Amino acid sequence: MTSPAETGAAERDVVVVGCGPAGCAAAVFAARDGLDVAVFDRGRSSLARCAHLENYPGFPAGIDVGTLSDLMRAQAERAGCAVVDDLVESVERLGDSDADEPPFEVTLQEGEPVAARRVIAATRYDGEYLRGLDDDDAMFEVHDHAGETHEHFDREYADRDGTTPVDGLYVASPSDADRQAVTAAGRGARVGKRVVADARIDDGWWPEAAEGVDWVRREAELDGEWADRDRWVEWFDAEHADGPVDPDSARFARVREAAVDDALASYVDADEEAARTAAGHRALAERLDPDAVVDAHGPDALLGAMDDEAVAAYAADGGPDAPQADGGTR
Ligand SMILES: Cc1cc2nc3c(=O)[nH]c(=O)nc-3n(C[C@H](O)[C@H](O)[C@H](O)COP(=O)(O)OP(=O)(O)OC[C@H]3O[C@@H](n4cnc5c(N)ncnc54)[C@H](O)[C@@H]3O)c2cc1C
């Protein structure tokens, strides 16, 4: 069998198949930890069949699935993923590739094949593209319905953290969590965290050190001794003194350095918090219907928020070519 280097396939740390709630969550967790993630999204979608999603947290009057899908893709992109509109046709494991090469080759409907170190399946309806990675009996289940025999991907094939008997293959969906959007997203997050921990373990971390949280914290909470890096080093040493790796080894020092960097990088100051708040509001506003925004806030509030010169110029010119506050045109 040819290796990805021989086929010229682009290489990714992680390929996620599907950008529904499960795939988006998995991709965001993996990319936020610095993994190079590509998400392919096309084909049959459960979410697209939902008329209006009213039980997903954070949307008081529900959310239409078109807007939610746009938001999820945008979130994955902002986290650093390449989100590509393409269908995964098959995933093959290149059995004899050496350890330094990604073991999977992902074949797409349109694009060039992609080599991946890890693959996360997140496609509620479809597991066909995984056929051949393991025995059919293990991956698929057959049942009779109305006198006909049907074969489906086995929702219990993967463990709850998405790991499977195939090293490097994870399944976020189909799973026993895929019947509601929020539980599918939760499963995706859990699988994304597992992938992050496994990538760290490959990089020399040990399991207890590799499991972490993806939190963003206020610098104001970094009080007293914890503002000092040495205190974190001390904490790490105490936590892992009896762990599997010699505390005097170079490996221990390297992982400690990375873990402390990681912890300290999770703190943001008040200016950064304000900047992220503004960026978050803007990303939401970009996807809202302008009429709904006017309806919700009233014209006075919106005119008050606008640059006076832009409003005057718009009134004077009375049209879409009036200059905007940023110097562009409408
Ligand atoms: C009619 C209906 C109404 C529903 N209403 C609700 C509701 O009100 N509330 C609720 O919580 N849940 C509802 N659900 C369930 C909800 O849609 C699912 O729980 C949720 O969408 C599962 O998320 P997922 O990410 O696992 O899969 P999906 O939402 O199916 O996302 C999978 C993604 O993968 C892509 N994909 C598929 N195959 C491939 C491939 N080979 N290559 C690349 N991409 C691929 C698809 O295009 C899709 O974007 C409803 C489902 C249906 C059918």
* Number of spatially distinct domains: 3
Give the mean pLDDT: 92
Bound molecules: flavin-adenine dinucleotide
Regions with little confidence, pLDDT below 50 for 5+ residues = none
Q: What overall geometry do the principal axes of the alpha carbons give?
A: flat
CATH-derived topology of the largest domain:
FAD/NAD(P)-binding domain
Give the total of beta strands. 11
N-to-C span? 56 Å
Write the layout of secondary structure elements.
Blueprint: H1 4-7, E1 10-17, H2 21-32, E2 37-40, H3 65-78, E3 82-84, E4 88-93, E5 104-108, E6 114-122, H4 136-139, E7 140-145, E8 148-153, E9 169-173, H5 181-202, H6 207-210, E10 217-218, H7 229-240, H8 250-265, E11 267-268, H9 270-285, H10 290-297, H11 299-305, H12 308-317
Parallel strand pairs: 1-2, 1-6, 2-3, 6-9, 10-11
Antiparallel strand pairs: 4-5, 5-6, 7-8
Helix pairs in contact: 2-3, 2-5, 7-8
Bound molecules: flavin-adenine dinucleotide.
Name its key features.
FAD/NAD(P)-binding domain, alpha/beta, oxidoreductase activity, FAD/NAD-bd_sf, oxidoreductase, 330 residues, flavoprotein, 3 domains, seven-stranded mixed sheet, FAD/NAD-binding_dom
What does this structure look like?
Helix content is 39%, strand content 17%. By secondary structure, the protein is α/β, with parallel strands linked by helices. The protein has three domains: 11-203, FAD/NAD(P)-binding domain, CATH 3.50.50; 207-268, no CATH class; 270-315, no CATH class. The strands form three sheets. Strands 1, 2, 3, 4, 5, 6 and 9 form a seven-stranded mixed beta sheet that branches. The chain has a two-stranded antiparallel sheet with strand order 7-8. It has a two-stranded parallel ribbon with strand order 10-11. Strand 7 and strand 8 form a beta hairpin. Helix 2 runs parallel beside helix 3, helix 2 packs parallel to helix 5 and helix 7 packs across helix 8. The protein starts with a helix and ends in a 13-residue tail after the last helix. The model has no long low-confidence stretch (mean pLDDT 92). Flavin-adenine dinucleotide (FAD) is lined by residues 17-23, 40-47, 49-50, 53-55, 87-88, 122-126, 129, 173, 178-182, 184.
